What does this fold into?
Amino acid sequence: MDCLFCKIINGEIPSNKVYEDDLVYAFKDINPEAPVHVLIVPKKHYDSILAVNDEELNIIGHINKVATIIAKETGIDKSGFRIINNCGEEGGQTVNHIHYHLLGGRMLKWPPG
Ligand code: AMP
Ligand code: ZN
It folds into this structure.
């Protein structure tokens, strides 16, 4: 499949790995919006969260767990952080392989633009 994040996961395209296990791969965003900006993606391809069926929902919990591990490793667990999933065109999704942004290391604005 011609998917940017599948290619990053299988090493065809280089990335700065932050974390990896059997289920997920995490790497630094190429265009960081904050001092810590990591993308956490399931190794299995899903176009978006809409494609995850009920039997596979454990992956979403696992991604949240991994986000807390990376938050602790990078020290933003103390200052605070945000986990974001952009879904679909108006949600701002530009890569059609589910990914969760982990952002921290500065004061983040709310509400989003
Ligand atoms: P989204 O807009 O939510 O779909 O997020 C896609 C993210 O992927 C953006 O923050 C991009 O900066 C990031 N991105 C695109 N290409 C790469 C790449 N080759 N390596 C790392 N991050 C990337
Ligand atoms: Zn993919």
